[in-house]
């Protein structure tokens, strides 16, 4: 089990201890007034944890407090893990980023694109180019999510059984179902948050010849010492699993059981887009592998190298055409990060204009979050990472991510 403890004196890492307390005090109020039940946060610099704090309960009904080893549903924070897995295979020559996805998933041959009509009577045209692997990595494939509830194509996903927490069938079967539905737009022409990373996970399976859980375990989790991360919480660890909550009409956190139980047993579908359970200690090890600092170049941690530093740097560039941000190029309907001044790399959001979002950030910052209000960012310029773990749906309920940034950076003196 990875340990979660402060590894460097905050002052030595450039933080003012009294200012770090502002972070804890701010988020303690979220629990005291009922907006959250509990949380855990970390701040590290130069690859060492400088601040760890927690408050409240992981399961309020059972009276269980947040502990360092609490297991959290990280939902879309699974996506960077899947993207790293894909790029590890890229480094082996398993594919090129421009390869058609149909090379690995034949059902993606001859895709069609929605142009009008309704979910019951859609009008479609042939795709002008194939869905390519880089489209999956950047959410520009034309795929979508049923839970967006903004387009007829979203409704078609729901009719096929895909909604928040609902994943019928295996990963291979799901990919074939998605391929049978029209794309929302021509591949590469827009950005839309989607099941693209789940499809990428299937590419990893086909290219590697391994189920996704085996690839993750053997190639990522074991080398990095991520002993508590997987697609479900095993029986012996269920007492550590945080309960899931949702914002109710009073703005408080209320128990949300409808999709909470899915991580208590092995899933039929291995969702590289949103299926992982992890701990703060484990996820910090993953982030520290991606962080470049004096003691460890990016792509490596404690002697275990997953990627070359050049590959990590390439993933960290904005890959949206014309260096556009998500607000300009896409359909910024997800609430998991600010979109103005933020582009998208190969698996992460990346800041391209720090002033645009009106939140203190650094140029080149990498970030993402999960549906239950978990979040992380990596700041290469400051050699800093931060994480926040809680279990509240939706992630748009409160300005946790922007407040965490302003409070972390005011403490860095």
From TrEMBL:
Organism listed in the record: Trebonia kvetii
Keyword annotations from UniProtKB, A to Z: Hydrolase
PANTHER family: BETA-LACTAMASE FAMILY PROTEIN (AFU_ORTHOLOGUE AFUA_5G07500) (PTHR43283:SF3), BETA-LACTAMASE-RELATED (PTHR43283)
Molecular function, one GO term: hydrolase activity
Keyword Hydrolase: yes
InterPro entries: Beta-lactam-related, Beta-lactam/transpept-like, Diverse_Enzym_Activities
Boundaries of every Beta-lactamase-related domain copy: 23-398
Keyword presence, Hydrolase: yes
Protein name per the record: Class A beta-lactamase-related serine hydrolase
Pfam families, per database record: Beta-lactamase
Protein origin, superkingdom: Bacteria
SUPFAM superfamilies in UniProt: beta-lactamase/transpeptidase-like
